[in-house]
Amino acid sequence: MKLYSGDLSPYSAKVRMQIYAKGISDIEIELPPGFMTGEFHKTSPLARIPVLDLGGDLIPESEVISEYLEEVYPQVRLLGATARETATIRTVSRIADIYLLNNMFMVLGQARASTRNQGIVDLLTGQVIRGLKALEHYIGEDGFAVCGRLTLADCTLVPALFLIENVIDTVGVANPIPDTPKVAAYWAAIQKNEHAAATLVELYRGLAERRELIAKMAAKEKAKAAAAAAEA
Amino acid sequence: MKLYSGDLSPYSAKVRMQIYAKGISDIEIELPPGFMTGEFHKTSPLARIPVLDLGGDLIPESEVISEYLEEVYPQVRLLGATARETATIRTVSRIADIYLLNNMFMVLGQARASTRNQGIVDLLTGQVIRGLKALEHYIGEDGFAVCGRLTLADCTLVPALFLIENVIDTVGVANPIPDTPKVAAYWAAIQKNEHAAATLVELYRGLAERRELIAKMAAKEKAKAAAAAAEA
């Protein structure tokens, strides 16, 4: 079994944190072939990572992969002991997935100020803030999202809160996490969990790489503009 | 057990179709108290329907409710016989949920042409069309979404395709379903399924009520404007 994954992909990070927390050691984790060249969409129609590769048979979508791994690797269960507990875990995981991650992911297309559509930024970051407020109602106060232990809800929340804290300012919006004190306290506490910490190292590494790439491209464009100006 | 639901709410329709298909008869289905006045958010922080009420203990989010009902009502299973089959069902249900329904739901805020943000319309309907193309790859050709029988994937797809077909033109975009022939054939076939048909009757009833309300409000505004003009 192989997980196609990328350091900075928050959806991939969610499944990696689950794999670490479950102690699964027989899943290879790698970048998919053809991901950077756009060839990957021929393999997986949604063209997104993560994808779980069962020897050529592919499962897309982090939430689907996570639930599949819970079924085939029952050890260290990250869902509930009862149907009601599982519903609580899935509610918080879904708030993180749909209201936080999905809207953060879509709003990043508005990072460039010169072409930014403020209506898109307002709509999507408004949904993020709405999601944080709902999360404030559900979040645990003992260092875990819910149920007093590490669950799938933590695996989705860690990359979601990472993305909000580190990236929302690129669309001109201040980090809203401090406005939800219970979420902020949870966020400070969960970063000390070993599986969260391992996942965050990869996310920060991916972010540093992305920023280096953006700086390089900006320097190249600047040099090109300077050369064109000198020629004129 | 009680399901807070509304005729036109596509997420509620998904759970209703599941309840009909499973033959569950002991869940009351009704509009939540305070939904129209905004009081409902005090009861459920996400302020959305459906919500499953277990005697005062509330489960929000259609996907979470559907999975809960699969666990507590195992008869007429709408998930898979194996973990892999369940992953296939959840993949298609998720495409319908995230890429189709969620984006359709958000874009409806742009229905009024005079205040429309075209960038929002392009972004969100672009995601809908992208989702339909991915769905074209996964959809079954025997009248069911996947697995050759009615599953949770059908329960999510029916309200999603209803919404696209009947409502996407209100934001100035033509119905894209005919551009994906396998999805179009599925859509024609599934409407003849008795549980889909029962759910569609409610969705169309809700749509007719909504249109009547909008027409009434428009007439009222027109009369007000005419009165103001006569006075001036």
UniProtKB/TrEMBL annotation, chains A, B:
GST C-terminal domain mapped to chain residues: 82-226
Recorded coiled-coil stretches: none
GO cellular component term, pick one: cytoplasm
Pfam family for this entry, one: GST_C_2
Location of the GST N-terminal domain: 1-77
Recorded superkingdom: Bacteria
Descriptive protein name: Glutathione S-transferase family protein
